[in-house]
6,7-dimethyl-8-ribityllumazine synthase
Amino acid sequence: MAGTEYTLPRATFGDPVKILIVVAPFYRDIADMLIAGATAEIEASGGTHEIVEVPGALEIPTAIGMADRMAKFDGYVALGCVIRGETTHYDTVCNDSSRGITLLGLQGTLVGNGILTVENRDQAVARADPTQMNKGAGAAAAALHLVALGRKWGGRRKGVGFLPEPDTTPSDHDKDAPKA
């Protein structure tokens, strides 16, 4: 991994890790660099991955939330790039995609956020390129470290809140049943 931003040692696992990479490839070349960095980091940790694409950065939290409820992955990597344009849409996409990923994390979903939010294409390339800042690998490393913490602390618990009490009242059918 290039750069000096990431300093934690690589996460290691006794059992293999399966990571879902959700990518918004609006800027295809930048997305490909982010994917290259993320997949290299996952494979270096002995993990496997699947990749799904969504139309834009706003759809990334939704796709991760769906996968977390409907599929079986240990963690998730969010990849995409938002470059400031002429309108306020940039702020909406940056803030809401980040907020969505943060909310998923607070609910127990293990996500590394690699959605770049930059002023121009040069900044995006510098951050995505695996030979420069390699933010795809950084996002994968974040997800892998969260998975390692989750495993250390006993794995994932399903659901949040209270479970309904089982229904103990006799049904109408039971009331008519003969008694011994």
Q: What stands out?
A: Helices lie at 28-44, 60-70, 89-106, 121-128, 135-152, 172-175. The CA atoms of residues 22 and 52 lie 5 Å apart.
